[in-house]
Amino acid sequence: MIQELKIKNFLSFKDEVRFNFEASSDKFAEESQVVQINENTRLLRFAIVYGYNASGKSNLLMVLDFLAYFWSAKRKDLDAETGVVPFKLDRASTDEPSSFELVFYVGNTKYWYQLELDQHQVYLEKLSYYKTTQPIMLFERTLKDGQSDIQFNPKAEKISPAAKDMISVNCLKNMSFFVARNQVNVSLPLIDAAKDWMRNQLMPIISPTMGLTSYAQRLTAENKNLISYLVKFLHEADFNITDISSNVIVKQLTDEAIKFLTEDNGGEDEASAKELERIKKERTIRQIQTIFEHTVKNTNGTETYQMDKKDESTGTMRTFGVEAALFEALRNAAVLPVDEFETSLHPTLQEKVLYEYLKTQSRSQLIITTHNDGLLDLVDDLIRKDSVWFTEKKPSGVTELYKLTDFRGVNRLSSIREAYKNKRFGATMKK
Prior knowledge:
This protein has helices at residues 30-33, 57-72, 91-94, 161-170, 177-181, 189-200, 213-222, 224-236, 255-262, 270-282, 314-332, 347-358, 416-421; strands at 2-8, 17-20, 34-38, 41-44, 46-50, 98-106, 109-117, 122-130, 135-144, 147-152, 241-252, 284-298, 301-308, 335-338, 365-370, 388-393, 399-403. With 431 residues, the protein is an alpha+beta fold. A 7-stranded antiparallel β-sheet has the order 2-1-6-7-8-9-10. The protein has a 5-stranded mixed β-sheet with strand order 14-15-5-16-17, sandwiched between helices. Strands 11-12-13 form a 3-stranded antiparallel β-sheet. The protein is globular and about 80 Å long.
């Protein structure tokens, strides 16, 4: 679970901002929306971010995407860029490093990750963990004479001099320590627990334009429990869908098709490369066919019809995809970022999605951005006050990030939504 994220000089975040999932002393919905990690740490499972267009809402989610990408992206040579994007509306910021800090929990073990880099090289990369209140360094990577210098804590992780040297040699100055670590066959339990969390528990952003259908089809073909979950949700949400089936269809390929699919394509990752090799060997492609069963009542009585995904509405398919992702987040105790949550979802359906997620006890976390101020009417009914955040862009183009509970007198307001519309909290269109 994420506790805190600090960002500086990345996209529209020129000045350091702090985002966190730390719960206040508020007892509302505590059983389902707050996870008690230890005596002093209570973490929220949900955050909702408001702000006008181009205020930086999406950029907050993109920080998580960048960190996950950076931890896994292998560089071919020293000339490749790191992928970081500094604040570009200030001449000085463009040439300054970007910095990030992420505090997160793997089970009950607390980690603190620090990163400082520019577009060409990493100046600092450090991972620590906590046994008590003080951090214990696991590794610290700095830049010396244009090369990565990596120090391990022998009291925390035992590593041979040979393995240490191999990791150092493989760690190019423009890529993450974790990429180099993946190339060396050595056991580093504490470090690997953090690495696996980033790979498995931090899900990619669901953007407004992302097609989720193929993703949901693959999951439903693999997991029958997901089908039951989706059918139950869609039925309760007033869809007339009563069953879903996703089956793998194997089709033979022609020589031309095989050449088109495999030529000049080495696969973006290991899984893609293996699939391309399978295609060459077996000369087949696997496609998933999903059929939705609809049960309706008409003049003929109760009838059942089978419909292909192409005949379903955009809203139905968006719900199909979003709910599949939420199922995975719940199942894997993962962090799921969703940008413009309201995309293709009716306001009542948005409430239904959030209600079903938030009533389920889990160590998963959901962070959404939205323009739907109607959800603010659910504060203290479904949504906790400490879950609400705002972004506002200053005249300089710099994003400010703050939360609802930063304001005094919030508990005395009769309507959070009306206060927001009346610019009580900023983060709205200037007139």
